[in-house]
Amino acid sequence: MRTIRFLLAKEFRQIFRNKAILAMILVVPVMQLVVLPLAANYEVKNINISVVDNDHSTYSAKLIFKVTSSGYFRMTEAKNTFNDAFKLIETDKADLVLEIPHGFEQRLIREDEQKLFIAVNAINGTKANLGGAYLNNIIRNFNADLRLQMIVPGKLNPMPVVEIAPTNWYNPLLDYHVFMVPGILAVLLTMIGSYLTALNIVKEKEVGTIEQINVTPIKKHHFILGKLIPFLVLSLVVFTLGLIVAWAVYGIVPAGSIGLMYGFILIYLLAVLGLGLLISTYCDTQQQAMFIAFFFLMIFIMMGGLFTPIESMPGWAKSLTALNPVSYMIDVMRMIVLKGSGFNNIKHQLMKVFLFAVVFNSWAIWNYKKTT
Amino acid sequence: MKETVIKTDKLTKRFGDFVATNEISLEVYKGEIFGFLGANGAGKTTAMRMLCGLSIPSSGQATIAGFDVYKQTEHIKKHIGYMSQKFSLYEDLTVLENIRFFGGIYGLSNADIKTKSEALLNELGLQDEAKTLVGSLPLGWKQKLSFSVAILHDPKIVFLDEPTGGVDPVTRRQFWDLIYNAADRGITIFVTTHYMDEAEYCNRISIMVDGRIQALDSPANLKKQFNASSMDEVFFELARGAKRGE
């Protein structure tokens, strides 16, 4: 125990003397947490639309007004022919073209039927899909309004309407910040924790101080604990800062127990830091450690369910996420923060993450060789 | 009867096909200053790392302070000090913090650490630099500090790998004073060097060429044996036959 105290004193002194590390630990996460959720937003706005109005009637004007007033679309140039408008798509000035055919109003009233034409630039798939869907929705609304006006009083409504009234549980306003902030915090914590530990032991190898340690009778697990604990403490500080930012900037207050959250985070951090230490024991230079950590983190984060739901991944990818600690973390963060899940709900994730912690750390201790 | 603290028998280290250290056999006695000489690449550092328990030999036997280099490396580490070729104290810790840290992990009591660090600072004349970051000290001071930290826990043997490389002549003299003081306290010194004047300071020396020990005796006897007037000549005579090296 006494040895660990000396190791901790040394490690903390070194950390507090390294301004770059302090900045990385304190400033960077706060900044990212303020900036990223505002930018990383699934909600598609500012879809550029070009309208080709061949009709120039009251109805076509009404429709165009409805589209532009929805807030999702931004009118680019209006063109006279579809071909002209399509050029806007080709030059990436427009994402959508809505073509209103000649005689739109007339036929709509007389024949009770009309066709509109929408062309979508599908290079940005999300934007195109959502844009197309929004536009469809607006046109359907427009259509319903028209029908309502045309119903002759006294007659029965010729078409019964089924209306759906959805309620969004856990995030009633569908606020993306509420969804993204816990996830981004989880990712930040993962990155900071594993990078710092991955680089730390390797740095001692590069500088040569590890040799001086290896020639002492220090126990391997003491050495590893001496590296683990300081970064565990720092990561918890980062997490606390993150919670404060989430509350102060986005007004997110965890629905579930904060104690439970810290309990889970503690175990999770042991796993992530253990991974960093493990990488560190295999590398000889900080550059190698950087690249290997980057490789794993990239996969873990992209496949962790932050940006794309795991449920919609192909089967093989879904089974791979079972080996991805980040996916459990993002999951649990969202469960506790948004849903207020209790211990029994996260038991499964907790067990898995605990297993990662045990495996990574034992592996790191085993692979750290004082004698080669 | 002299007490043997280092005993090796045909100690060998291979890296693939390359035999870095080839069947070296030697004995070092308590309180002795043993010079371990050889050209660059002769296998000195490899041999020394095996003796320190940092590297497991490929074959041969060795005991350090009575402990086996295969099975009891951690016991060996309690009883030796080591100063590597590369400066390896923490540059971002102060002089005093380094002393405390290494004292602590060798298991010295707080009282011991306190008295020993004061004595050490006095001996080196570093009282005013106790709170200076080690990284900002001049090389000579760093080396002296590094040596003092290596013997802080009163080891039986201290291994020094080119401790005076790149250090000015005055500081080298002071460094050797420290070595003599340690030897007087009964600490066995095992030192590698490229300076032949330093070889003369040793009780006995061995000269390695291409992984083998080609000569082992006191400097005076070696000069007699090779009919040379200085250690320089002895070394040159032996080392010019080397196939590897620079």
From TrEMBL, chain A:
The keyword Cytoplasm does not apply. The chain crosses the membrane at residues 20-40, 176-196, 228-253, 259-279, 291-310, 349-366. One of its GO terms (cellular component) is plasma membrane. It holds the Pfam family ABC2_membrane_3. Belongs to the ABC-2 integral membrane protein family. Keywords: Cell membrane, Membrane, Transmembrane, Transmembrane helix, Transport. It is a multi-pass membrane protein. One of its GO terms (molecular function) is ABC-type transporter activity. This is ABC transporter permease. Residues 128-371 form the ABC transmembrane type-2 domain. Its main location: membrane. It is found in: Cell membrane. PANTHER family: MEMBRANE COMPONENT OF ABC TRANSPORTER YHHJ-RELATED (PTHR30294), MULTIDRUG ABC TRANSPORTER PERMEASE YBHS-RELATED (PTHR30294:SF29). It comes from the Bacteria.
Automatic annotation (TrEMBL), chain B:
Keywords: ATP-binding, Nucleotide-binding. This is ABC transporter ATP-binding protein. SUPFAM superfamilies: P-loop containing nucleoside triphosphate hydrolases. Gene3D superfamilies: P-loop containing nucleotide triphosphate hydrolases. It comes from the Bacteria. The lineage of its organism: Bacteria, Pseudomonadati, Bacteroidota, Sphingobacteriia, Sphingobacteriales. PROSITE patterns: ABC_TRANSPORTER_2. SMART domains: AAA. Residues 6-235 form the ABC transporter domain. Transmembrane segments: none annotated.
